Give the backbone structure.
Amino acid sequence: MSESPDSQMRLAFDQLLPNQAFASLVRIGAAEITDCSVDRECVKGWAVARQQEYLAGRWCAREALKRARSVETASLLADSEGLPRWPEGMLGSI
């Protein structure tokens, strides 16, 4: 049985990134995306497609942080420009 495209993508990320880098991926609108109330509040009034993109990106960032730190990160807050505020000692991109 062959691997799914998502499994292949995860494997490629794991092989390409050094041990200090962590990535996560999810399909936009996927059932496993769980909203954080802070994230949901940020996207009020946005177009549905943009809300889904934002929530998927934030979900992926939290998942990658969990892998990196082995801790639950409930929210990835935004700065005054809407950019994510990464925890001390962490750098990231969504």
